[in-house]
């Protein structure tokens, strides 16, 4: 019996409340209002007779709506206003612009963020609007401009530091770990460092080993920082805004391949809670935890799984540090099976930490070992076919679920 | 055709030269006489379009012609428009030397005996300021000695002195205003002292008791005070330089009448952050003063093993930064240099680099015994012959602002205050255990609350393994 009591309490909440609702901020209802779920037998154990129960449950489920797309679409929200459609990088830009309008202390610094508009166009148009001091083009030295952002933050600004690729921030590790993460603590709380460090990471399309890194693995140990990963235009904008408003240093992980995702987001002001996970698809059989681009591979697999009769619960953990063990815990207590799908490498990734956290906290609720699908411990190859094989594919996710649900 | 009048001796000879060149009368670009020393401005494009002139480069010219003409004709007249300005060509394969024949001179105002050097330029200080500078230098010296002894006696865990560098510490602080933000390395407690940090506050941080503003989290000498605009010391070398540039950027955005000031040693200039910060500051036109305490040693590494340039001052030019070399043990020169630099930094919105030559009389820290790598004679010589306190004392005494009596009064008073501060700090309670987990974030998250609970449970079950002086 673990002596660590999970602080958030054991209250079980129904699925419909798994929205990104922060009671203080107006938030449009999230995408969790999906298909109606029928009564099910929750099956423990893995022998063949029990498997029948799945099948019997299936007959009921066939009358339910099947997931038509990999991306869970938002239902028509009666309370939402018209909303507007945009791409993920535009959502990030919108969030950034709104925060810069709202607070004159917010500024941006990084390489090519000014008149060039940013390598991924996230800062497009901002230099024209706010001037090139507030949207600052820096020389090429990640450690220096991260250090600069920290110094500026200690004197009252709220910098948003862009790494052109997350991998480049390895050069800024000294400043991020020693100064960003620690100075609030070592100064006795005298100096706060409300920076946002953001940039694209993850495996792209043949970008080569150096440009396909998953920095969340390396940063996750640093005390004093928070890490979040966005995956949809909705949460990208919400997390960007929340990160800027946070007093803690926040690292916002974007993904190179998700910048052109399109979605309709609310017109009104909203933020997403930095420490909350997002329920993508409620389910009963198995909890699949994922984040960033892997969310889409999981949802793709979910389509197949549903057609095969499984009911996976998909949670986009979003908050990489700290983990939202409340949401995750409730899910584990319901499904008793966990599959983690991540893009990090097998050794020392987010999945490894999450596996440990779940085993430690929810061991008694698990019917099978936590399974974690990750990339191999290899530098990402350039060859397209090989690169594809380093990233977890939907077929592997389906196989893993079938294996776990036996 | 622009007339380049900067070095022209007479208009007539200039005009003649123009005439000569436009009429195609021979180039003056004698092969061996074309070197133009560091002329930053664009020479006029005269005659460069004339096709004949391109191949006329061996005509000798009489020595009597104007130097202006020599500069112009002594080149091949083709120039290249390149980002940053026009670049002249040269047919000679000549490298810029790795060092000048003469080292950059060092600005000083008081000689080794504390006498004012004639015709010296300096910023006048009032009696009040001069006496405070000297008193604070004495205070710093006494504080350092007593804390060092306390560590040797086992009362403190660690200490690093600034002996020998008191003038840099105090005089530079005196030339700044309280709004200037300081990013120290770790050998600049004098700046805090000048701004009003009390001996008790220093002692509290060194003992890590509950009155320490750092809440007992850091090792001794890692002071910080947001009230006094002195940013908490981060042990990593040179990371404070980019931080200072960021602060200067912030001040620039707010158009404040203040600058950022950062200190570092000769060893710190090898770090990448030094180079990047200087480059950034120049490009951003940030009002930041970089003060290098070149004290000859980086733990056991002498400057000859640290860099091969003429010290640190010449590196400023590489980044486009105005620089000066100062005698770091001359308080009056330090004051004047920093005062002037501050004016330039703020009014011209530019960074300034100051290299203060000094000597680290003490060991690197209490974990070091410097006699293992340097001679005791060397230390002794700098401590006696180049002592910053005695030089400045001579000067203020010569102005009638100080006396032996004032000296002994001050020393006995400070010593008493220091011993009292030590006594009180030692007795003061340590911070509560909860401070181990607070301030990691703005609000303790659930995992940290759990971990604190676990620690407390462990202490409950094994109280004998837990120190008795840390309140729970």
Between the first and last Cα atoms of chain A, what is the distance in angstroms? 27 Å
**CATH top level of the largest domain in chain B?**
Alpha Beta
Number of domains of chain A: 2
What is the C-level CATH assignment of the largest domain in chain A? Alpha Beta
So how many helices of chain A?
Answer: 13
The CATH superfamily of the largest domain in chain B bears the name Thiamin diphosphate (ThDP)-binding fold, Pyr/PP domains
Major sheet description of chain B = 5 strands, parallel
Radius of gyration of chain A: 21 Å
Number of strands of chain B: 9
- How would you sum up the global shape of chain A? globular
Overall 3D form of chain B: globular
Largest interface: A-B, 53 and 54 residues
What value does the average pLDDT of chain A take?
84
Low-confidence stretches of chain B: 1-8, 24-74
Structural class of chain A: alpha/beta
Could you please say which CATH topology of the largest domain in chain A applies here?
Rossmann fold
**What is the mean predicted local confidence, pLDDT of chain B?**
87
Helix and strand content put the structural class of chain B at alpha/beta
Strand order of the largest sheet of chain B: 3-4-5-9-8
Catalytic activity (chain B): N(6)-[(R)-lipoyl]-L-lysyl-[protein] + 3-methyl-2-oxobutanoate + H(+) = N(6)-[(R)-S(8)-2-methylpropanoyldihydrolipoyl]-L-lysyl-[protein] + CO2
Subunit structure (chain B): Heterotetramer of alpha and beta chains.
Pfam family, one (chain B): E1_dh
Domain Dehydrogenase E1 component (chain B): 137-433
């Amino acid at each position: 019996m673990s002596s660590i009591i999970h602080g958030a309490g054991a209250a079980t909440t129904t699925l419909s409340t798994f929205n990104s609702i922060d009671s203080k901020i107006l938030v449009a209802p999230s995408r969790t209002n999906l298909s109606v779920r029928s009564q099910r037998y929750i099956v423990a154990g893995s022998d063949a007779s029990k498997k029948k129960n799945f099948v019997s449950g299936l007959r009921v489920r066939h009358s339910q709506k099947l997931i038509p797309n990999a991306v869970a679409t938002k239902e028509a929200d009666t309370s939402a206003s018209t909303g507007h459609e945009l791409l993920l990088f535009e959502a990030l830009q919108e969030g950034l612009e709104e925060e810069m309008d709202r607070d004159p202390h917010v500024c941006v610094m990084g390489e090519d963020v000014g008149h060039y508009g940013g390598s991924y166009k996230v800062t497009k148009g901002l230099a024209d609007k706010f001037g090139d001091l507030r949207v600052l083009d820096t020389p090429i030295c990640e450690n220096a401009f991260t250090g600069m952002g920290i110094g500026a933050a200690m004197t009252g600004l709220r910098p948003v530091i862009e790494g052109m690729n997350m991998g480049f921030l390895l050069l800024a590790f000294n400043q991020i770990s020693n100064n960003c993460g620690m100075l609030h603590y070592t100064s006795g709380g005298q100096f706060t460092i409300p920076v946002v460090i953001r940039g694209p990471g993850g495996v792209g399309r043949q970008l080569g080993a150096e440009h396909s890194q998953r920095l969340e693995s390396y940063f996750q140990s640093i005390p004093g920082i928070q890490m979040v990963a966005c995956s949809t235009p909705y949460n990208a904008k919400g997390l960007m805004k929340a990160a800027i408003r946070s007093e803690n240093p926040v690292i916002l992980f974007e993904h190179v391949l998700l910048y052109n995702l399109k979605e309709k987001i609310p017109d009104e002001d909203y933020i997403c809670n930095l420490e909350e996970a997002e329920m993508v698809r409620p389910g009963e059989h198995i909890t699949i935890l994922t984040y960033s681009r892997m969310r889409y591979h999981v949802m793709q697999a979910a389509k197949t799984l549903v057609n095969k009769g499984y009911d996976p619960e998909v949670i986009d953990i979003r908050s990489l540090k700290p983990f939202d063990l409340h949401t995750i815990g409730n899910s584990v207590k319901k499904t008793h099976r966990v599959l983690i799908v991540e893009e990090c490498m097998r050794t020392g990734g987010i999945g490894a930490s999450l596996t440990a956290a779940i085993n430690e906290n929810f061991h008694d609720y698990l019917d099978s070992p936590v399974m974690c699908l990750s990339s191999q411990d290899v530098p990402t190859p350039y060859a397209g076919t090989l690169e594809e094989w380093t990233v977890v594919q939907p077929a592997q996710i389906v196989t893993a679920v079938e294996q776990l649900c036996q | 055709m622009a007339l380049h009048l900067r070095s022209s001796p007479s208009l007539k000879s200039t005009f003649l030269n123009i005439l000569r060149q436009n009429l195609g009368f021979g180039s003056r670009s004698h092969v061996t006489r074309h070197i133009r020393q560091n002329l930053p401005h664009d020479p006029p494009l005269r005659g460069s379009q004339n096709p004949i002139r391109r191949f006329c480069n061996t005509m000798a010219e009489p020595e009597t012609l104007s130097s202006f003409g020599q500069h112009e004709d002594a080149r091949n007249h083709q120039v290249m428009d390149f980002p940053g300005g026009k670049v002249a060509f040269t047919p000679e394969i000549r490298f810029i030397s790795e060092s000048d024949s003469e080292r950059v001179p060092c600005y000083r105002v008081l000689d080794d005996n504390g006498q004012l050097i004639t015709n010296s330029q300096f910023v006048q200080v009032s009696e009040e300021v001069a006496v405070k500078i000297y008193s604070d230098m004495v205070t710093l010296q006494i504080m350092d000695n007593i804390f060092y002894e306390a560590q040797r006696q086992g009362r403190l865990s660690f200490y690093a002195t600034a002996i020998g560098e008191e003038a840099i510490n105090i005089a530079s602080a005196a030339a700044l205003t309280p709004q200037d933000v300081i990013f120290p390395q770790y050998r600049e407690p004098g700046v805090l002292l000048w701004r009003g940090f009390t001996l008790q506050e220093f002692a509290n941080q060194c003992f890590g008791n509950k009155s320490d503003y750092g809440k007992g989290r850091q090792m001794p000498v890692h002071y910080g005070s947001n009230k006094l605009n002195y940013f908490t010391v981060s042990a990593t070398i040179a990371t404070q330089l980019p931080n200072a540039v960021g602060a200067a950027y912030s001040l620039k955005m707010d158009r404040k009448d203040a600058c950022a000031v950062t200190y570092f040693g000769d060893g710190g200039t090898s770090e990448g952050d030094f180079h990047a910060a200087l480059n950034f500051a120049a490009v951003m036109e940030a009002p930041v003063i970089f003060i290098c305490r070149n004290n000859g040693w980086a733990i056991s590494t002498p400057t000859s093993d640290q860099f091969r340039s003429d010290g640190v001052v010449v590196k400023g030019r590489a980044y486009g930064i105005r620089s000066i070399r100062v005698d770091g043990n001359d308080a009056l020169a330090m004051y004047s240099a920093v005062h002037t630099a501050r004016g330039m930094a703020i009014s011209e919105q530019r960074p300034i680099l100051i290299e203060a030559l000094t000597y680290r009389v003490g060991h690197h820290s209490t974990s070091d015994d410097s006699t293992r790598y340097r001679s005791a004679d060397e230390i002794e010589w700098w401590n006696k012959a180049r002592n910053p306190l005695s030089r400045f004392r001579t000067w203020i005494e010569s102005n009638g602002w100080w006396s032996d009596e004032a000296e002994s009064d001050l020393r006995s008073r400070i010593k008493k205050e220091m011993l009292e501060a030590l006594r009180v700090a030692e007795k003061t309670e340590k911070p509560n255990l909860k401070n181990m987990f607070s301030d990691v974030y703005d609000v303790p998250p659930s995992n940290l609350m759990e971990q604190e609970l676990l620690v407390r449970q462990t202490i409950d079950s094994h109280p004998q393994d837990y120190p008795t002086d840390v309140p729970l």
